[in-house]
């Protein structure tokens, strides 16, 4: 493993009362701190974990929390090597965040083998609570099923009865297009066409012309990263939204929208689990976060790290131990009462159930500030937001 792969941030040990041997825990925040996912996850997730430990300290005593972090460089082998080193040599009890589905699946397998806990906020793969589920992993914030079904179902119900998809031509893009198409057709809508583009494509003009010519009410974008932002930019140049079509992003983060700005992204419809300006509780947390993170508001991944770490620490306190089986049992039997995600639960398959939200990006005229980016179109109830327990194929489900 390259030395640069392990970046342990100094000054992140939080002492939350008098240390006790059986309730001293170490949490490793493992994510992308230098690449494509650094803005939506990265060092902001470390800040979120620190905040959870500090807030826990205010109301609880007797647990020492040590937070470390590392950059997995979006490589599953590096994520696996760091995880093993953390557990075997540094006695890490929990590995948190872990964007990049391949890295997350590798970490999930390791914590199962080592009987530790994986609190995932950053990865999208629904397999973490499906065929690859384990008794040691909790998937907190979102997954590909929730994003594809949330946006497709909500827009179809609101009159978006015809769709055209622009999707990345690899497993992720095809799976998102397939899942969204299934829910659209189940609701009586129709998909008029789909085009698949290569990864890291630069010119979307021919694809966008096909989308315009289709006459579809909604143009769905089943891609991510630079492909997503480039397709949104070029859609703005083609005037898709102004011509009456709705542009829908299936996997979008507020960091993407902030980078694009409402001038370019206005009118885009998307699904997220959290928005900083939803209510007093989200605003209070987000303003505190921004003070510590260069004025940047948290993404839903950052919020998920905070919430998952807090729920874990409460479970450790309740059982008086950091034993993985006992803590996981407590986390699953205790309802989630969360200021950022609201009421929810940790299901048998490890999926955390909470409301999701359909947002539309504001126009420049509507936006009143740098991060005033979304208007809420609909709330997707927790019971509808995630894949039904019986449909995931998780071997833990009886």
Features:
disordered N terminus; 6-stranded mixed β-sheet; 2 domains; 7-stranded mixed β-sheet; alpha/beta; 398 residues; Rossmann fold
Task: Indicate the radius of gyration in whole angstroms.
Answer: 21 Å
The CATH architecture of the largest domain can be given as 3-Layer(aba) Sandwich
Number of helices: 13
Spell out the CATH superfamily of the largest domain: Response regulator
Strand content: 15-25%
- N-to-C SSE series? EEHEHEHEEHEHEHEHEHHEHHHEEEEEH
| Main β sheet profile | 7 strands, mixed
Low-confidence spans:
1-22
Could you report the average pLDDT, rounded to the nearest whole number?
Answer: 91
Model description:
The chain has 13 helices and 16 strands. By secondary structure, the chain is α/β, with parallel strands linked by helices. The protein folds into two domains: 3-142 and 279-354, 3-Layer(aba) Sandwich (Rossmann fold), CATH 3.40.50; 145-272 and 355-385, 3-Layer(aba) Sandwich (Rossmann fold), CATH 3.40.50.2300. The protein has a seven-stranded mixed beta sheet with strand order 8-7-9-10-11-15-16, with helices on both faces. A six-stranded mixed beta sheet has the order 1-3-2-4-5-6, sandwiched between helices. A three-stranded antiparallel beta sheet has the order 12-13-14. Strand 2 (24-31), helix 1 (42-59) and strand 3 form a beta-alpha-beta unit. The model is unreliable at 1-22 (pLDDT under 50).
């Amino acid at each position: 493993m390259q030395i640069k792969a392990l970046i342990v941030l100094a000054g992140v040990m939080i002492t939350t009362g008098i240390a006790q041997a059986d309730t001293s825990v170490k949490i490793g925040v493992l994510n992308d701190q230098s690449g494509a996912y650094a803005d939506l996850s990265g060092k902001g997730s470390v800040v979120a974990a620190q905040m959870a430990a500090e807030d826990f300290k205010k109301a609880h005593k007797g647990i020492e929390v040590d937070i470390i972090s590392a950059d997995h460089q979006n490589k599953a082998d590096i994520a696996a090597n760091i995880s093993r080193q953390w557990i075997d040599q540094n006695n890490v009890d929990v590995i948190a965040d872990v964007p990049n589905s391949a890295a997350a699946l590798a970490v999930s397998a390791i914590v199962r083998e080592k009987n530790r806990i994986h609190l995932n906020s950053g990865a999208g793969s629904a397999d973490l609570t499906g065929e690859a589920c384990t008794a040691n992993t909790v998937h907190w914030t979102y997954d590909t099923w929730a994003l594809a079904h949330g946006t497709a179902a909500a827009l179809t119900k609101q009159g978006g009865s015809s769709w055209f998809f622009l999707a990345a031509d690899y497993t992720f893009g095809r799976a998102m297009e397939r899942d969204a198409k299934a829910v659209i057709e189940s609701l009586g809508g129709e998909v008029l066409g789909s085009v698949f583009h290569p990864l890291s494509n630069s010119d979307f003009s021919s694809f966008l012309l096909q989308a315009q010519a289709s006459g579809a009410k909604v143009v769905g974008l089943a891609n991510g990263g630079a492909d997503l932002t480039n397709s949104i930019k070029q859609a703005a140049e083609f005037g898709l939204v102004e011509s009456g079509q709705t542009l829908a992003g299936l996997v979008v983060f507020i960091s993407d929208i902030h980078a694009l700005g409402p001038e370019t992204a206005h009118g885009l419809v998307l699904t997220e689990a959290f928005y900083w300006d939803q209510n007093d509780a989200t605003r209070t947390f987000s303003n505190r976060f921004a003070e510590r993170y260069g004025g940047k508001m948290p993404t839903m991944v950052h919020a998920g790290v905070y919430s998952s770490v807090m729920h874990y620490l409460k479970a450790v306190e309740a059982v008086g131990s950091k034993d993985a089986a006992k803590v996981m049992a407590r986390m699953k039997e205790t309802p989630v009462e969360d200021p950022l995600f609201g009421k929810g639960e940790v299901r048998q398959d490890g999926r955390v159930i909470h409301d999701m939200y359909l947002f539309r990006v504001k126009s420049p005229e509507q936006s009143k500030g740098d991060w005033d980016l979304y208007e809420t179109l609909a709330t997707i109830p927790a019971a509808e937001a995630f894949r039904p327990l019986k449909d995931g194929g998780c071997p833990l489900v009886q």
